[in-house]
């Protein structure tokens, strides 16, 4: 059975595997697009220079859910891959099952804890164990705007949400779609996450989206978040049903729509068209009292294995991932910024530089927090309640009070 | 001589069982064993991975307190009822019309049957664009001059489930037509002739004689379409992805999301058991009556 499965995995491999070298490590991940593969090659080459083969097991699709399924099957069959890409709570949850290797020695020797923002630790440690090496950091709460449309309508970069809504109304009068987006719950969730902290501050986000404090969830401040979300809905065209996020990005690029709320994976679409930040398009954080940095990270965890050669390869891979040079090379291609806070971003584009400096400020102010929609705040069973309520509210005509009630009941039911 | 004959007759009696045994074993393991396992999981507190404790009916209580599940159950009944009724009615109508000795019947039949050859993924994706107000039917009619025309059900959470019905009926009514057509061809012409001699009008002949004679075809259509209705997971995923705002959630999409996306394996298992019980509530009496009829006959 497991042989059949490895054959199946081998059939989906992107990189041909040569003779099974003594030190080779199989890495299960869900990165299959061209830029993702190119970025991974930075890691692969460094690993090969150290004398270890990278055995690629890419299982794309469903935002990593398919790769998770593959992992379940592999673990059940007693044949885990050497390493695995983790999103959100996945690594921690597997660590609780006792199948993930503790990298604490490496972390101590390499000073990993000091090189990372303390806010990341809940996702890379489990108890005393260090269970995953983060390679990159995306920011979810970006706004991407078409500069020409802003100039034509006499709109400048908004400083808060009421300015943003007003700007949207102005743009709508000019006949452009103010906000490009689709109706998928996660696209709505990106806006909802941003509103939670922008309108009520990072402490509110902490209490609502991370601690799930019942009083905060039921508070009038929460209703205010929904009120603003309703105003955002008024700035979205009616054809948003079933629209892919990249199509929405294309609308901003083509000048059909003025802005999009999206993580910095959207940046690549602008750069690929040869557009320049601040010349052709704007990138700025969702406007809040305190500028928030809602992070999304990809980490690689290693599974407990008996094979000593593989154990050595795991060490090499973990060190490669945490190598400042590799983090720089990888993120230059991937469009994110290094997970390490001590890597210079001088060679990066202006948006990345802005993100980097805002991250430094946000770490100090406590406004650097995990992005709930991508799994970096409440656990999935709770985060999905937020996403259900926000999505139903957005596409229908529920009142803010009903939405708050539904949210409170839903969270209680999932506890 | 006689020994080998005994041998071969013994083999002959054992061979069918031997041939059937592996597939039976596979079915027992992959279907019934996992049904039992799902039932077991539904009374545990399993979230991310299965755990084997016992929490009674807690997951069922949680399931029925989830608004999404209520939407899913309501949608299943709306969808199945409308899908069955419309596909059957439309299929019967098309079959009767095609049965009037018209020209190019073969070509027309292929045209109506063709959607069945598509997968639900293709149907769903195509209809997603056809029913998008800015790209499909509404835009075409608006551009033709009727500017107040609205067909934006797919964006409206209250109406979105009906768009799934439309796409499903489009795909499956041709299939129903084919079965009815075969049934119509089996109707003895002399019966119709006799009725005509008695002076019965054509509608009356259809209503009183032919359609009642199509009972076996009707039964096949209903059984096959109900099973298509229950497994229409992919149609919903492609057409609306259970949206907008979970408005087109079905029990199958709910079960998948709870189990594999939302860390709620116990709730997912509970929903699967509810689905099984619903199907069993319909199938068991049907099987019972069928088997009893056979025994009597």
Write the topology of this structure:
The complex is a heterodimer of chains A (415) and B (297).
Chain A: H1 2-11, E1 24-29, H2 34-49, E2 53-58, H3 65-76, E3 83-86, H4 90-96, H5 104-110, H6 112-115, H7 121-124, E4 125-126, E5 129-130, E6 133-139, E7 142-146, H8 147-152, H9 161-173, E8 177-179, H10 185-200, H11 202-210, H12 214-217, H13 220-233, H14 245-254, E9 257-262, H15 267-272, E10 281-285, E11 293-302, H16 308-321, H17 324-334, E12 337-338, H18 350-365, E13 368-370, H19 380-395, H20 400-414
Parallel strand pairs in A: 1-2, 1-3, 8-9, 11-13
Antiparallel strand pairs in A: 3-11, 4-5, 6-11, 6-12, 7-9, 7-10
Helix pairs in contact in A: 2-17, 10-11, 10-13, 10-19, 13-19, 13-20, 19-20
Chain B: H1 2-41, H2 58-64, H3 67-98, H4 105-113, H5 120-130, H6 137-143, H7 160-185, H8 189-197, H9 202-213, H10 215-230, H11 233-239, H12 251-260, H13 265-296
Strand residue percentage of chain B: under 5%
Helical content class of chain A: 40-55%
Low-confidence stretches of chain A: 1-21
* Unreliable stretches of chain B: none
Descriptive overview:
The complex is a heterodimer of chains A (415) and B (297). Chain A is an alpha/beta fold and 415 residues long. In chain A, 51% of the residues lie in helices and 15% in strands. Chain A contains 20 helices and 13 strands. With 297 residues, chain B is mainly α. Chain B is flat and about 70 Å long. Helix content of chain B is 73%, strand content 0%. The interface between A and B is medium-sized, with 31 and 31 residues.
Key words describing this protein structure:
heterodimer; A: alpha/beta; 7-stranded mixed beta sheet; 4-stranded mixed beta sheet; 20 helices; 13 strands; disordered N terminus; B: about 300 residues; 13 helices
């Amino acid at each position: 059975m497991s042989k059949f499965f490895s054959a199946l995995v081998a059939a989906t491999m992107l990189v041909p595997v040569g003779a099974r070298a003594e030190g080779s490590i199989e890495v299960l991940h869900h990165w299959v697009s061209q830029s993702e593969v190119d970025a991974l090659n930075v890691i692969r080459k460094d690993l090969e220079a150290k004398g270890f083969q990278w055995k690629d097991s890419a299982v794309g699709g469903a935002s990593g859910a398919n790769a998770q399924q593959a992992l379940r099957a592999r673990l059940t069959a007693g044949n885990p891959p050497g390493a695995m890409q983790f999103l959100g709570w996945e690594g921690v949850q597997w660590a609780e099952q006792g199948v993930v290797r503790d990298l604490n020695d490496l972390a101590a020797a390499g000073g990993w804890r000091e090189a990372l923002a303390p806010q990341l630790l809940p996702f890379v440690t489990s108890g005393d164990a260090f269970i995953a090496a983060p390679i990159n950091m995306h920011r979810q709460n970006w706004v991407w705007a078409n500069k020409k449309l802003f100039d034509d309508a006499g709109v400048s970069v908004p400083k808060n949400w009421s300015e943003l809504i007003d700007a949207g109304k102005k743009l709508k009068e000019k006949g452009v779609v103010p906000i490009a987006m689709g109706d998928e719950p996660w696209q709505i969730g990106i806006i909802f996450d941003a509103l939670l902290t922008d309108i009520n501050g990072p402490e509110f986000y902490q209490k609502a989206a991370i601690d799930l404090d019942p009083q905060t969830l039921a508070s009038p401040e929460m209703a205010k978040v929904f009120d603003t979300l309703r105003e955002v809905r008024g700035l979205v065209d009616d054809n948003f049903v079933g629209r892919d996020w990249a199509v929405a990005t294309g609308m901003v690029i083509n000048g059909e729509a003025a802005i999009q709320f999206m993580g910095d994976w959207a940046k690549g679409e602008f750069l690929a068209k040869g557009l320049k930040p601040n010349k052709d398009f704007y990138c700025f954080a969702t406007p809040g009292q305190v500028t928030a940095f809602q992070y999304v990270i990809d980490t690689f965890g290693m599974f407990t294995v008996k094979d000593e050669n593989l154990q050595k390869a795991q060490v090499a891979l973990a060190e490669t991932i945490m190598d400042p040079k590799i983090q720089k090379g990888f993120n230059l291609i991937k469009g994110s910024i290094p997970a390490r806070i001590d890597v210079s971003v001088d060679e990066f584009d202006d948006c990345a530089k802005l993100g980097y400096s805002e991250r430094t400020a946000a770490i100090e102010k406590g406004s650097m927090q995990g992005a709930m929609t991508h799994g970096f705040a409440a656990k999935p069973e709770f985060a999905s309640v937020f996403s259900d309520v926000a999505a139903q509210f957005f596409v229908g005509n529920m009142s803010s009070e009903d939405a708050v009630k539904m949210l409170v009941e839903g969270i209680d039911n999932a506890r | 001589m006689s020994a080998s004959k005994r041998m071969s007759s013994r083999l002959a009696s054992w061979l069918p069982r031997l041939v059937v045994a592996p597939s039976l074993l596979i079915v027992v393991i992959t279907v019934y064993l996992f049904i039992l396992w799902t039932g077991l999981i539904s009374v545990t507190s399993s979230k991310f991975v299965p755990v084997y404790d016992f929490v009674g009916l807690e997951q069922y209580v949680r399931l029925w307190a989830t608004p999404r599940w209520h939407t899913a159950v309501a949608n299943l009944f709306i969808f199945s009822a409308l899908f069955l009724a419309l596909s059957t009615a439309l299929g019967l109508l098309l079959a009767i019309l095609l049965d009037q000795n018209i020209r190019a019947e073969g070509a027309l039949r292929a045209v109506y049957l063709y959607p069945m050859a598509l997968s639900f993924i293709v149907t769903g994706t195509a209809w997603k664009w056809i029913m998008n107000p800015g790209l499909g039917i509404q835009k075409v009619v608006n551009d033709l001059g009727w500017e107040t025309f609205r067909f934006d059900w797919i964006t409206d959470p209250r109406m979105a489930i009906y768009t799934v019905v439309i796409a499903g009926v489009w795909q499956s009514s041709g299939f129903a037509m084919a079965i009815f057509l075969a049934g119509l061809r089996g109707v003895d012409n002399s019966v119709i002739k006799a009725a005509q001699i008695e002076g019965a009008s054509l509608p009356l002949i259809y209503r009183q004689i032919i359609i009642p004679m199509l009972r076996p075809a009707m039964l096949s259509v209903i059984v096959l379409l109900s099973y298509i209705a229950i497994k229409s997971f992919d149609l919903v995923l492609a057409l609306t992805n259970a949206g907008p705002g979970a408005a087109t959630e079905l029990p199958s999409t709910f079960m998948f999301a709870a189990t594999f996306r939302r860390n709620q394996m116990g709730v997912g298992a509970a929903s699967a058991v509810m689905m099984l019980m619903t199907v069993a509530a319909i199938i068991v009496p049907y099987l019972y009556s069928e088997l009893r009829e056979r025994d009597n006959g």
